[in-house]
Amino acid sequence: MSFNEHALELSIIELLQNKGYRHQTGSKLLRKKSEVLIVDDLKEYLHTRYASAELTESEIDSIILSLRTVGGTLYEANKAVMSMIIDGFVFNRENKDKKDILIELINYAEPEKNIFKIVNQLEIEGYNYQTRIPDGIIYINGLPLIVLEFKTAVQENTTIMDAYTQLTVRYQRDIPEIFKYNAFVVISDGANSKYGSLFTPYEFFYAWRKVHDDDKEKDGINSLFTMIEGLFSQDRLLAVIKNFIYFPDSTDSNLKIVCRYPQFFAANNLYENAKAQRKTGRNWTGSLKM
Asked: Could you give phi then psi for residue 194, rounded to 5 degrees?
């Protein structure tokens, strides 16, 4: 089989399946073409996570509606929705005799209790009935958190930059609704695999070249494996989403920062060292080296 975009897509799906992601083809999802959530997954997660609270069906519909109706520019909507995903939000019960509860759309403490899916070839109908089909979307609990776009390195006149343009120009213009929920995007041609915020200039997209901090950095096709192993392990991905995506309180530009792997490892090392020193009762100071 020639190494084309489809072969790359299937290879990445297989790697993600090996990490515990369920695979689903977009055509097999029962949904309107304009729908970007997997509503059944989100409802299943909420029913299970808040079983003791006995959320009613209309309350769950209300939670989903609160996500759908976040407005503003795409950047403003993404900032607001990511705040709901990262920090959770207080939900007012229908029955006023019941206490309000904090809704967490992702169970960060117990990664295995979330629904991880890789969905490929999902046909999405957007503005002016424009249809776009992202190569891959990673869903957690029905939320489309990562969009992946592939280009083959062996096809003449096609580069990884074409994948970046597809995401940040065509998809952002035609199917912006999916990016309201977006944590970050991934571009790959097999030999080069990079990730970054949808609002990040291409030159700031970055490879994830290590699985562990003391590993040697990998490039080329090996960096695809280190990205899947190092960034998309389920607990690691949740840690990045929870603690390493930054929006400034106010900005004149659409600034959104996703950590690079040296920052991820350095911050975690600093945290673990601080915890160790606290246990011994000694004062400790350290520097964060990037």
From this structure: -135, 160
In the chain (290 residues long), the average pLDDT of successive 10-residue segments reads: 73 95 94 95 98 96 97 96 98 94 97 97 91 96 97 69 95 97 95 95 96 93 93 97 94 91 95 81 54
Dist CA 185 CA 222 (whole Å) = 19
Q: Give the DSSP letter of residue 132.
A: E
Global pTM value: 0.92
Q: Output the six-digit token pair for 286.
A: 């350290």
For residues 242, 243, 247, 248, the Cα torsion angle rounded to the nearest 10 degrees is 140
User: For residues 114 and 49, what is the distance between their CA atoms, to the nearest angstrom?
Assistant: 9
Write b or e for each residue in 173-209: b if 16 or more Cβ atoms lie within 10 A of its Cβ, otherwise e: ebbbbbbbbbbbbbbbbbbbbbbbbbbbeeeebbbbb
Cα separation, 17 vs 285, in Å, equals 41
> Contact at 8 Å (CB) between 252 and 262?
no
Neighbours of 44 (CB within 10 A): 15
**Are the CB atoms for 146 and 179 separated by under 8 Å?**
no
Kindly list the structural domains of the chain, giving each domain's residue range(s) and its CATH number in brackets, ordered by start: 5-259 (3.90.1570.50)
Identify the DSSP state of 86.
H
144, burial (CB in 10 Å: exposed 0-12, middle 13-18, buried 19+): buried
Q: Name the token pair of 2.
A: 């020639």
